[in-house]
Amino acid sequence: MNITAIVPVYNCQDYIEKAIQSLLKQTFPIKEIIIVDDGSNDGTLEIIEKLHSQNSSLKLVRQSTNLGVSSARNKGISEASNEWILFLDADDFVEDTIIERYTGVLDDELGKDPNYVLVYPAYNQVDSNGDSLQSVVTGIQVLSHEILGYEFVRNYVISPSGVLVKKEAIMKFNGFDTTISINEDWDLWLKLAEIGGFIYVDDPLVNIRRHPSNTTSNISLSSQAEINILKKYQLFEIKEAIYKRELSVFANSCDYVSILFRLEEWEKGFLILSSINESKNITVLFLKGIYYIHVLKLREAEQCFEQILAQDPLHGSSINNIGVIHVLNNRVNMGIKYLRKALELFPGYVDAHFNLEQLVKKVEKRIENFKVTKRELRPNLLKYFK
């Protein structure tokens, strides 16, 4: 299997050498590694040129001005001469067996289903020094016709780093959309999921850095960008994809409602919820709680989240949301207790961290000043601080 690795780079002098070296040290060598410098003006280019002079597999492509990561990746794609493309962001690094693992998996799986277009691993999260945050984010393996529905509900391919994509497939969409600056990768994964399946390798083969600069403000922007991407699709397209998953009608309905709520289709979603008989189910209670907060029926919302915690005392998003409700009802000390508990149970929980910071700032106790978690938490959260 022939692979081209693409590394877009912009002002990453502290990390770029480790990223490139992780590709050079593969147990199965990569014959072509394309580094696209996107107009760096620090010491990045000097480091790349030194490595380039020492390694024939490296190819340096320069963009004189900073055009953005999507443009840089697309430039690399256009220069790639191989059938499969491995992406790696300049501040991340891969394990030295990733190509060996991917080659073995593809040899096995393509014989069963030739329509696979993407391979991705579990991700190990590290801090800016490269030290592990002791948090691995895992994915899922589903049938090819199911992946679009799963990706609508939640992006399991959380970073382009370590993602292997078939060049022929990615070229059908002209690569990454350069008009999107946040969640541009998820936008492409959704497109790819429309034409083929994803292979998940359940091993943390990629180390992704979480920097202090990846703050709550970026999370807010990401949430809006996510909504904008979902709005590219008609509701019937989203619903059809979700109900293609080989899950129960109940499970598919709950996930569809969660998307309706993200798209501000509150009444449509609540109508579906009201038709579901499993009123004691945690997911149903959670979605109803979110709806009640939206319509400012805080008492009803609190009752939903309390019922959840009676069944699952470690349900993080419910703990955060009850904390917010207490604050809005001027029970600040109780609210702080819940928010601190959420952070204790789930270190790096951005919404709870943000809410506590808002209380320190003594902001007005209005719903728009706090973050209600609208989805149940991943088993392992994405971390932006220790």
The CATH topology of the largest domain turns out to be Spore Coat Polysaccharide Biosynthesis Protein SpsA, Chain A
Q: SSE string, helix = H, strand = E?
A: EHEHEHEEHEEHEHHEHHHHHHHHH
CATH architecture of the largest domain: Alpha-Beta Complex
The count of strands amounts to 9
Through-space gap between termini? 39 Å
**Helix content range of the residues, please?**
40-55%
- CA-based gyration radius: 22 Å
CATH superfamily of the largest domain: Spore Coat Polysaccharide Biosynthesis Protein SpsA, Chain A
Estimated share of beta-strand residues:
15-25%
Shape annotation:
globular
Unreliable residue runs: none
Q: Which structural class best describes the helix and strand composition?
A: alpha/beta
Mean pLDDT: 93
CATH class of the largest domain: Alpha Beta
Total of DSSP H or I helical runs spanning 4+ residues: 16
Number of domains: 2
| Main sheet summary | 9 strands, mixed
